[in-house]
Design brief:
Elements (H helix, E strand, L loop, with lengths): L6 H7 L7 E7 L2 E6 L3 E6 L4 E6 L1 H16 L8 H8 L20 E6 L6 H12 L5 E6 H9 L8 H19 L4 H18 L6 E6 L4 H11 L3 E7 L2 H11 L4 H12 L9 H5 L4 E4 L4 H15 L9 H13 L10 E6 L2 E7 L13 E2 L5 E2 L6 H4 L3 H16 L2 H12 L15 H11 L8 E6 L3 H10 L3 E6 L6 H4 L4 E2 L7 E5 L2 E2 L1 H8 L37 H15 L1
Length: 575
């Protein structure tokens, strides 16, 4: 259904709707009307398209009413009164399965993130094929063609470089114009709602929506707000050489074009640009694609088995150690960020570390219980007790001194250049001991050698830590979050290797279940999902099959307000 005209004209044609709900302008490209009964209509001025979603019965009645009104010049249909009465009242239907673990038809929303040149289409296809075993129907939503094209303006072109560039620029423009860096995630949510309506007349069911791909942390945060426990992000890692080869050989780009697009994709300097690098580490799962389809398929299958509650999937040591590194990071009170590290040998943890201020006698500051039974930090200890970050203060002082030393007539012109120079990346004036260093120091304090050990850290080591990691004899470093300021690879290319087969300390991107979902998916009864049962009452191992499995964390199509009402209604039946 379409309407060509202005918003004012549409409201005038649908004037009677004011009796059953309210209009809202979501952004210049989308207006929403929501009935009191839960039906939702969206209108997109750019295309004139009208979409209906929300509570199934209400959305159908709303569509019927609007269709009649638009065909009758704003007048309601002769039999419209019962429909309008329904739309004007909140629904009374209650699904009591929302209060227990019997609800089994939760939808699933999977987002994908990977640097430019990563073949995410292959990953989505494997996910789609595997979901069929769980009786789920997958729907792929491409941010470029299914969102940017619909809410933006992207000229048609056969040139692949121009097409990629235009999608990136239009995405940036939409974020800037709307003032919302999550606007493309909002578009993805609308696309999901429309797909649901087309497939099942707005009735939620065993549907999975695959969003390819997310490029900013704001998009991930927005989708987690909307879908909560029903949204998971899968980060796909492919090395720089493979991604470049894909752009050069498959898309026929030049080296200069490929290098420019990869750099822009990872971290555009403009505030509304793409920040794939910052988005990747927010993933719930990390998979690696090096061209081996069997290896990729096995990783994807294991992820879906976990999501659907397979009771016998347990963590690898890499997953366990990285979760412990994440746990160690939570004790940090650093003003900038929380980083954790774990040092291991022979699959045993020998030391942990976090980024925080050192204290005399060894180790870092911990809060302690005083005589009044209060848990407090020592005065003048951690940075927040001093009220400042010493590294930031020193950088500021250096920049101010340089600017003061310049002739007055050029200070205003040169100052921005100095402030945005490499000085901002200096880290050596901080009071904190970095997490990797603390793990190494903790090990040495206990008299345990770090030779041939593996270091797990939540963030790629800086160049200062890297030289000590090399000197300590560490064999392998596993990390999650990139650290752009690090010059480790540049300064120590003789001793750091990005491939296991080469000489040097192996710096290895983490692959597996990330710390974010570790607890919920591996705990059999303490996570946010239903409890996993591993044996029958007579002690036999439980049989598990994909066809009968249900998602561990169910995304219920109702709010906590609805569930409160259901709880009160249920209680009243008991009294």
């Amino acid at each position: 259904m379409r309407f060509e005209g202005s918003f004012a004209q549409l409201k005038e044609r649908l004037e009677l709707l004011a009796q059953v709900g309210t209009w809202k302008e979501l952004n210049p490209n989308q207006y929403e009307f929501r009935t009191h009964s839960g039906g939702v209509m969206s209108w997109y001025p750019g295309t004139g398209e009208l979409g209906f979603q929300g509570q199934p019965e209400s959305s159908l009645e709303l569509e019927q009413l609007v269709r009649g009104m638009l065909s009758q010049d704003g007048e309601a249909m002769p039999d419209a009164r019962p429909i309008m009465e329904n739309l004007a009242h909140a629904p009374e239907f209650m699904n009591m399965s929302f209060l227990d673990d019997s609800y089994a038809d939760s939808e699933l929303v999977l987002g994908f993130v990977g640097a430019l040149g990563t073949d995410l289409k292959v990953v989505c296809q494997i996910v789609e094929d595997r979901l069929k075993a769980f009786r789920y129907t997958a729907h792929c939503i491409r941010i470029s063609t299914d969102v940017i094209t619909k809410i933006g303006d992207v000229p048609q072109t056969e040139n692949r470089v121009e097409r990629i560039d235009m999608y990136m620029r239009e995405g940036n423009r939409l974020r800037e114009v709307s003032g919302d860096n999550s606007i493309l995630a909002l578009g993805a949510a609308v696309a999901i709602s429309q797909l649901r309506y087309q497939e099942s007349k707005a009735e939620p069911g065993r549907n999975a929506y695959l969003i390819n791909s997310l490029k900013t942390p704001f998009e991930v945060q927005r989708l987690r707000k909307i879908y909560a426990g029903g949204f998971f992000l899968i980060g796909v890692h492919a090395d720089h050489e493979r991604r470049s080869r894909y752009l050069l050989d498959d898309l026929r780009l030049t080296k200069e074009q490929a290098a420019d697009l990869i750099s822009r994709d990872e971290n555009e300097k403009e505030p509304h640009g793409q920040h794939t690098r910052d988005t990747y580490h927010l993933s719930d799962f990390f998979v690696s694609y090096d061209g081996n389809l069997d290896a990729l398929k096995n990783q994807i299958w294991r992820i879906l088995d976990l999501l659907f509650g397979k009771p016998y999937v347990t963590p690898t040591f890499d997953e366990y150690a990285m979760f412990m590194a994440f746990s160690a990071s939570l004790r940090s009170a650093d003003l900038s960020r929380q980083v954790g590290a774990v040092l291991t040998k022979h699959d045993c943890i020998i030391a942990t570390g976090a980024n925080d201020v050192p204290k005399a006698g060894g180790g870092l500051y911990w809060p302690t219980r005083n005589d009044a039974h209060e848990i407090v930090d020592e005065e003048d200890g951690r940075d927040y007790k001093r009220g400042e970050d010493s590294n930031a203060m020193q950088k500021k002082e250096i920049i101010e001194n340089i600017i003061r030393s310049l002739p007055e007539h050029c200070r205003d012109e040169v100052a921005p250049l100095i402030k945005n120079s490499g000085i901002k990346d200096i880290t050596e004036y901080g009071r904190v001991v970095h997490a990797e260093m603390e793990a190494l120091l903790s090990s040495s304090r206990m008299g345990v050698s770090a030779v041939d050990s593996t270091l797990y850290c939540t963030t790629y080591p800086c160049h200062n830590c890297a030289k000590h990691i090399i000197a300590a004899g560490v064999d392998r470093v596993v990390y999650v979050e990139p650290y752009p300021k690090s010059k480790a690879q540049k300064f120590h290319s003789d001793s750091i290797s990005l491939e296991r087969s080469r000489k040097g300390v192996f710096f290895d991107a983490f692959i597996g279940v990330g710390p974010r979902s570790f607890f919920d998916l591996f705990s059999v009864n303490l996570g946010s999902g239903y409890a996993v049962i591993r044996k029958t009452e007579d002690g036999q191992a439980v049989d598990w099959s994909e066809a009968n499995a249900k998602l561990r964390t169910q995304m219920q199509p109702c709010s906590y307000i609805d569930r409160e009402y259901m709880a009160g209604h249920t209680l009243s039946t008991y009294l």
